[in-house]
Amino acid sequence: MSRIEARLSELGIVLPNPPAPVASYVPFTRVGNLIHVSGQVSRGADGDHLGRLGGGLSLEQGQAAARVCGLNLLAQLKAACAGDLDRVVQVVKLNGFVNVTPDFNPIPQVMNGCSDLMVEVLGEAGKHARSAVGVANLPMGFAVEVDGVFEIAS
């Protein structure tokens, strides 16, 4: 068992099957040693996390939705690494989009649900640069969407 697979098992995390694209794009592209993973929405094993933060969804629900996005990112990354997450050198950058009402401000704290997961699973390699943006709407009413750039070993 690989180091990262052992860590996932220790944390009780089972990655989902990589979600299929819902439009005309690919789930990830590779440029050199960088993997660019397309935006992953908050669709998890427990269902879809839909709605707006500040308009019925709490901060904690937003963090859970962002964590689901992180699980989907890791699933896509695993596919991009031919099943070997030990190839991950660094999470370079995450871009988070949070479906919010105009008065909802703790957008960075919502994104911590995804960021904390990366560090929890990947350790130091999970630390990353990040953007967290509040938006008026996300596809199909999802609460959170996150895309990312990852460096992998050849």
Automatic annotation (TrEMBL):
Residue ranges of coiled coil: none
Every Endoribonuclease L-PSP/chorismate mutase-like domain range: 5-136
Pfam families (UniProt xref): YjgF_endoribonc
Protein name, per record: Endoribonuclease L-PSP/chorismate mutase-like domain-containing protein
Organism expressing this protein natively: Candidatus Phycosocius bacilliformis
Taxonomic lineage of the native organism: Bacteria, Pseudomonadati, Pseudomonadota, Alphaproteobacteria, Caulobacterales
